Structures are given as C-alpha cells and as structure tokens.
What we know:
The chain is an alpha+beta fold. It folds into 2 domains: 16-148, Roll (Diaminopimelate Epimerase, Chain A, domain 1), CATH 3.10.310; 151-287, Diaminopimelate Epimerase, Chain A, domain 1. It has helices at residues 43-50, 71-79, 101-113, 155-158, 195-200, 252-266; strands at residues 16-24, 27-33, 60-66, 85-91, 124-129, 132-139, 142-146, 151-152, 165-168, 176-182, 186-191, 208-210, 218-224, 233-242, 246-248, 273-278, 281-289, 295-301, 304-312. Bound molecules: ligand LBFN2T5F. Ligand LBFN2T5F binds at residues 27, 60, 91, 97, 100-103, 185, 218, 242-245, 248, 251-254.
Amino acid sequence: xxxxxxxxxxxxxxxxxxFTKGHGTGNDFVLIADPDGNAHLEPSRIAMLADRHQGxxxxxxxxxxxxxxxxxxxxxxxxxxxxxWFMDYRNxxxxxxxxxxxxxxxxxxxxxxKELVDLPVGSxxxxxxxxxxxxxxxxxxxxxxxxxxxxLIDPELAExxxxxxxxxATGLTDARPGLSISMGNPHTVVPLGAFAELEALELHTAPxxxxxxxxxxxxxxxxxxxxxxxxxxxxxxxxVHERGVGETxxxxxxxxxxxxxxxxxxxxxxxxxxxxxxPGGVLAVDFVLASxxxxxxxxxxxxxxxxxGELRG
Length: 313
Ligand SMILES: N[C@@H](CCC[C@H](N)C(=O)O)C(=O)O
C-alpha cells in the first residue's frame, strides 16, 4: 500500500468478535464461543447481531459458555456435574428463551467442530440449558436430544386435553382451538383441516392466542398427512411463529409440542414416532419410556455450520 508523503499508517484497533453461522433445518443461529464468560451480549447487541440487514442475520444467538460461569449453569451443575458446557440461547429480539431444540443440535455440533469437546459418533454429551441438563447423542448424520417429558401448560383449562385457547391468525377466516404445551418453553399448537389452510397462513404478524400462556407462546399450525396408526410413524406438516423472532423455517421444541398435541388428539391410537415436516426440512420426534419411568420426547435432526466470520465493532 503506498502512503501520501507525510501520512502515517493507521493501525485498526477496532475490536472484533469471532462468530460462526449455523442452522438446523433452516432455523439459523449466530454462535459465539465464550468459554470463560467474558463476552458482553446485552439484548440490543444480540438484536443487532441477528438483524438480517445491519448485522449477521439469524433467528437466534447462542453463546457457548462453561456452565460454571453463569448462575443458571451453576444450578444445572448441582444436579448434573458432567454438564460442562451451557447453551446460553437468546431469541433474535434479544429476549432469553428457556430452550431451543434446533439450537441444541447446532450448539453441540459447534462444540465438536471447534474441538471444545470430543464426541465420537454414537456417544452422548450432557449440556446445560435453562430448561435443565439435556443428553445429546451424536448420530452419523445429525444429533438426537433427550428433551425430557412434555406437559400441558394449563391442565385445568385443557379439561379433556383437546384445547385450552382460541387462536386467530391472518389467513384464517375464523378463530381456531389451540392446545398449549411446555417443552421447557411455551407452545400453542393449532390443528388445521388441510394443507391449503397451512399454505394460506400469513405469519408476518403474531397470531393472537386467547388466553395466552403467562410468558407468551410460540404458535405452531399443523396439518396431518394421513390417519394415525399406533405402531406406525405419524406425519405432520407444520408452520411456526416463534416468540421473540417471527415466522421461522423450523422450530425443534415446536415440532416436539406438535407431535405431543397430535398424540393427545389421536388418543390411544396415536403413534409413538413422528416425522414433522417444516419449511426448512424434516425433524423426527419419538416418545420413549425413559429409565426414570417417565415418557421422554426425543428430537432428532440435522445440524450444519455454514461459515465463520469476525464482526467489527
Ligand atoms: N427455534 C427454537 C425455539 C427458540 C425459542 C423460542 N423462540 C421461544 O421464545 O421459546 C427451537 O428449535 O426449539
């Protein structure tokens, strides 16, 4: 580089933040390694990172931090001392969410690829999340997470477990019944009669849920492929409007909630294994009897890292 006479070289001292961009079935994340918990990620900074025009662009931001370095992580360590790493997940608007099913797979893949953990195919890693410790198994193609049990958010309101709220969304001519389910984070699942109804939905604005769960909710609209058979694999198509984000191409906890709701509505004939088709791909959801005697939800799907970068400023 040639300099004008008298000009001196300017040293660029702008601080940079290394990041990785990744996604799970199109639900995309900015991942930041912060092993010792030194990064300052205020909500406004998170929102800037997630901004698709002025930042990197993502549905959420995930900080990989050792559990010992944040209070929620230390709580997890008390029950699961092996959970060295904590997934500190934030929605794109900067809000904190308890859990992110797609995020967990991408987070563990990030730990593997950055050599922060050693996880051969077929083995499992326990990580910390705000919804407790989760065991994640590395598969040949992707990861399977033991998400633990699901629950109705308001069993009294759900009465016969069919519905607990009415949901309005642009593109639907009338309000539809919804069932609210917790996967650690809140979801309201709304069954539709046909794929055409699913396609007609406009999810630029948040659906109105009445009554809404106390901490807001993610809303999943679902349409089933075919009659459900016990012992067979149920197939359902889903679109989602995420709390703190907007419409996303996929939601892992949403897929689990959708399968749980479909199973409730199907009664004893409901399948134990589900394929949930989302705009960004397909997720597998299984209901298994775990060693603690409870039914657990297992979520499996792909995890991809797309590129590394450095953010200036
Ligand atoms: N996309 C995630 C869920 C992320 C959190 C959600 N928006 C919330 O606020 O609860 C997933 O894959 O589960």
